Every structure is written in structure tokens, then in C-alpha cells.
Amino acid sequence: MSSKVENLGTAAAEFNYWDPRWGQNPYPMLEHLRKSGGVGWSTALGGYWTVSSYSGVLRVLTDPDTFSSRMLVLPPLDPPQRLIPETLDQPEHQPYRRVFSSLFTPRKIRELEDEVRTLTRELIGKATAKPAFEFVSEFAVPLPCTVFLKILGLPMSELDRLLDVKEAQARGAASDDPVLRDRALNVVLPAAAAYFNEVLDERAADPNPPDDVLTAMVTQPAVGGVPMPREDMISALFQLVSAGLDTVTAVLGLSFELLASRPDLQRQLADDPGLIPSAVEELLRYWGIVTISRQANVDTQIDGVPIKAGEYVAILTPSANRDEIEFGNPTEIDFRRTGNRHVAFGAGPHRCLGSHLARMELQIALEEWHAAVPEYRLASDTPAERHFGAIMGLEELQLAVGAR
Ligand code: HEM
């Protein structure tokens, strides 16, 4: 065994997916975890199983009776954070999910396409009017966030507040820095809950409410034929902010960093826009940005490894999507890949509600960029700073128009 693998072996036994040292490049570790059997114990985060194989990830996601969603992120919080609908188990989950499903159907998402295309063109025009631009803040954040606010039914003027809420949820609340943690838990999140309560009051009193998420929450029956309790509506808004604001941004940032250094891939998309739907699937597979956890309800096994009732497991979709048993040449980007059954959106009863929306935004972004900007490149030789954790992504990305 090489010393590199020995080091990975030691590190795997205490692997913490939040540790910044995995941010820049988690892939050697993920490959090591898969090659060591796909299910391994880590002493970090209070002790948990890492599930890195495609088969193991599918098994956990599609067996909600055995694996509870009550604790989605590790280390475990006491009491667990209730995020609706994602932390609910069956049968409680179904009626809540139904409230949101009707707003994210393929038909509803198609209705937004023209508006998303216009916005995409505007953002590209503004960014590329300069010789160099910061892709994340100028494109990857405003595109999905603007669309998301519209679906929710909140004004654009609230974007900065919601980005602050997302940051407080994703990092501030679990931060080691007491100042950041205190600001998240005692200032940002309570203020956001009060704001959500206010807009829900306004919506409930509106005699002519628009067709959006806020209206669905205050009018549609959830449990027992009546709308969900107010505290559940607020929890659902927190959940949507964390699921909807970061994810498409992350895939756009990571994908454009890769494309900017691969003129051959840019050319394929510019020359053959018909490839773009399968390119979106390939980029979703390649990055698989989400790591979520479950807790075993009973003694069980994953890929033959015994798991005890009460133990936690982390589902590493970035690893499952590169499992060499499921995907041929998994570390290669192949826009013509067939049989791409990636798990970027999860699987089973909690499979992503926003997948049609995310796909539509990613597809339009690739179409419009490669129609308007056939050649672009990284504007800096220093690699963009990245993070791993529950949602992998990058902090910023300097790009320039034109070939190197
Ligand atoms: C590329 C972008 C996205 C990725 C990779 C992604 C990934 C995921 C994954 C892996 C899950 C399953 C979580 C679990 O099993 O516990 C999930 C659930 C969910 N996602 Fe997404 N997501 C994306 C975009 C979005 C967007 C744009 C929205 C909303 C506007 C959204 C809303 C949700 C919701 C509400 C759930 C929970 C569903 C449930 O528990 O029934 N997602 N997502």
C-alpha cells in the first residue's frame, strides 16, 4: 500500500465532510472510501457511517422505513431541526409534500421559461460587457435566486435578507466562531422567522392571492384537511431557502469553472446545442453536490455492513455519482453519456422537488452562454476556493471572455 493510501486510510477513519481540507478536492478521499467497501465508520461528528457506493446510497434513500430523515445534517442537534418536508418521515411527509408538489410540476416550470431566458440574457450581457467578471455574484447567484423569489412570492428587494438567512443556516448556525454562531441563531434566524410570519399573515388576508408558494401554504390542505400549522409554514420557508438558493448556484459555479478550462467542451455545446439536455445531466452527475444524512430506526445492513439502530449514516452523492461500478469512466465528462442514472437529486420519497426547475435553469444558462459567448476562460491562475459539506460549491470565480 502506498503511503498516500495509508494516509487516506487514517484520514477516512475520522473523515469529517465539513473539514475545509476536503473542500478543494474531496475526490481522492471519496474514491478511497468506495474502494474500501463503500460503507465505513468515521469517528468524526459524533460517529457515523460514510455511505459512498452507488448501491449503498440508493439502498438508504429508497428505504425510508429503515432510515429516518429526522437528522439531515451531522453532527446531530438536540433537538433535531424540523425542516418541512425534508425531515419528516412517512406517513407524515406525504401530505406536506403534496402542498409543494403542485407548484414545481414540469408544466408550471415550463411557464417560467421565457422569463428565465430573458433574465439569463440580461445577466450575460451585463457580465460580459466587461473584459473580466465574477461569475458567482454576477450570474450564478442572481439567476436562480430571482426565479426562486418569484416562485415563492417574495419581492426581489428581499434577496439580500434571504441570502443572509441561507448563509446563517448553512454555515453560521454550526460555526465554531461564537460571534458568527450567535449572530445566526439569535439575530438572523429569529428576524427571518418574524418576517416570514408577517408575509404569511398578509397572504392569508389577501382576497385575491397570486399563484405562488406562500398562497399554497396558507390555503392548501395539508394534514386533517386544513392548512399546515403556522410554525410548519415558517419551517417550510426556511427549508425552501436552504434547498433553493444554494444548489443551482453551486452547480453553475462548479460547471463553469470546469468549462472555462476546457475549450473543447465549450465548443461541443456551442456547435451542437442539442447536446445541452444530456450535458446538464452529465454535469449534475459529475458534481453531485449534496451530502445528507439519515438515522437507522432498526438494526440493519448496507452492502452487507451491519448498522445498529440509532446510528447515523451520511449519504455521499458526490461519491455515488462517480462510482466506477455504475458509471463507465466516471471521472470523464462525456456529454453523450447514455444510461446516466445519477443520484444528484436523491431518490425515493424525498427526491428533489426542485429538479425540474433546476434542470430548466441549468439548460437555459448553458444554451444562452454558448450562443452569446462561444469562448471564455479562467481569468486567474489561482484555483477558485471551494467548500465540501452538505452542499459543495465555490466561493467565487473570475472569468474572462475570449480564448487564452
Ligand atoms: C441542482 C440543484 C439541486 C440539487 C442537486 C438538489 C438536490 C436535492 C437532493 C439530493 C434532495 C434529497 C434530500 C433527501 O433525500 O433528504 C433534495 C430535496 C429537496 N429539494 Fe433539491 N436540489 C436542487 C435544487 C432544488 C431547488 C431549486 C429547489 C426549490 C426551489 C429544491 C427543493 C428541494 C426540496 C423542497 C427538497 C425536499 C423534498 C422532500 O423532502 O420531499 N431543490 N434536493
Overview of the molecule:
With 404 residues, the protein is an alpha+beta fold. The chain is built from 16 helices and 12 strands. The chain has helices at residues 3-12, 27-35, 54-61, 93-101, 106-110, 113-128, 135-140, 142-152, 159-170, 178-205, 213-219, 230-260, 263-271, 276-287, 317-320, 355-372, and strands at residues 39-42, 48-51, 67-68, 132-134, 291-296, 300-302, 305-307, 312-316, 376-378, 386-387, 393-394, 398-401. Strands 1-2-8-5-3 form a 5-stranded mixed β-sheet, sandwiched between helices. Helix 6 (113-128) crosses helix 16 (355-372). The chain is globular and about 55 Å long. The chain starts with a helix and ends with a strand. Mean pLDDT is 92; it is low at 1-5. It binds protoporphyrin IX containing FE (HEM).
Compose a concise summary of this entry:
The protein is an alpha+beta fold and 404 residues long. Helix content is 48%, strand content 10%.
Question: Which short descriptors sum up this protein?
Answer:
10% strand; binds protoporphyrin IX containing FE; 12 strands; alpha+beta; single chain
Query: What average pLDDT do the residues reach?
Result: 92
State the total count of DSSP E strands: 12
Structural Rg: 21 Å
Structural class: alpha+beta
Encode the helix/strand succession as letters. Answer: HHEEHEHHHEHHHHHHHHEEEEHHEEEE
Bound molecules: protoporphyrin IX containing FE
Principal-axis shape equals globular
Oligomerization: single chain
Q: Are there runs of 5+ residues with pLDDT below 50, and where?
A: 1-5
First and last CA, distance:
41 Å
Strands of the widest sheet, in order across it, are 1-2-8-5-3
The description of the largest β-sheet is: 5 strands, mixed
